[in-house]
């Protein structure tokens, strides 16, 4: 059995991840961590009566042996969380978005130093990964494109990690870079990143949605993915927990293990 810690267990993704781990063959939900457990009433809101629950990751890591920690917290916490886990020999699966290049470099250094694997994925939905791969192909032939990403109103980062990852992949694969269509930074043309406008929408009722629109002479091509519930991410999360057991160092992107 792979013993799993879920960090951020009372958040939207954390709750769904706890359920997925409990339902998956070969995985054991060995601990749930959330700062909200500092309030004694918080435990009454979950469905984890048989699972050890902790208000701090430090306390959790000192309580026993674990194999993998899945982190769905916030960007300001995830770096310290990952370093603490890797230092204890616990592999990490990180779904927290908003990590910049500097933080990823620190995670990579910590994983290399500890000799313990870590997977960071901007999106765990298989369909979203396929969208990014298809966008890479389209960009070779239709280099003009824009990205529209839509999420629930509680999402903290904008643009989303998925949108930034998509733009990085497109920029690396397209054969030419068209002129940037507007000023760098926030504007009515969106945030210009890698020469690609990214438009972010945050509204209640949404989960996670992205469309990449390509334009060429006399034609357009749209590639879209919609997560209509957080269950869409769980096959990818479970896959990541299993595959991270064989990873050395840092791997970024679910597509690397599919």
Can you describe what's shown?
Strands 3-2-1-4-5-6-12 form a seven-stranded parallel sheet, sandwiched between helices. Strands 8-9-7-10-11 form a five-stranded mixed sheet, with helices on one face. The mean pLDDT is 92. 32% of the residues lie in helices and 25% in strands. The two termini are 21 Å apart. It has seven helices and twelve strands. 40% of the residues are buried. The protein is α/β, with parallel strands linked by helices. The chain folds into two domains: 2-120 and 231-256, Rossmann fold (3-Layer(aba) Sandwich), CATH 3.40.50.720; 126-227, Dihydrodipicolinate Reductase, domain 2. The chain has helices spanning 12-23, 57-61, 75-87, 101-114, 126-141, 161-173, 234-243, and strands at 2-7, 27-33, 53-54, 68-71, 91-94, 118-120, 144-151, 191-193, 196-202, 208-216, 219-227, 250-252.
Strand order of the largest sheet: 3-2-1-4-5-6-12
Could you tell me the strand content as a percent range? 25-35%
Give the helix proportion (percent range): 25-40%
What is the CA–CA distance across the termini?
21 Å
Q: What sort of overall outline do the alpha carbons produce when their principal axes are compared? A: globular
Number of strands: 12
C-alpha Rg (nearest Å) = 19 Å
